[in-house]
Amino acid sequence: MQQAPPPSGPPENTAAAPPDREATPAHVPVAAHISNLARLVIAAVVLGAVVLTVFCAQNTGATSVKFLVWSWPGAPLFVVILASVALGIAIGGLFVWLRLVRYSVEQRIPGRRQHRS
Question: pTM (2 decimals)?
């Protein structure tokens, strides 16, 4: 039985030195790419989530909701409050959207725009 001759040259090192990390932008940490505004937005979202969680945890009492013929006895208070806020935001957004559509139509039709004081 013949043995293979030993390899010529320097022995291969399986734990090679890491490549030059400054030369390749793929190795830059993700945190280095985030701008200060993005960090501020992330912090605001996290803070908002914490405040919302505390609000929900402290307002778990049951309340009764009645609207016309519809009734929901025993509704959690935080659900009623958050649903009211969401509905208000949706209705307000609808009015803003309608105003933007109206403004867009006025801009497309020449001579239709009227100056209001």
Answer: 0.52
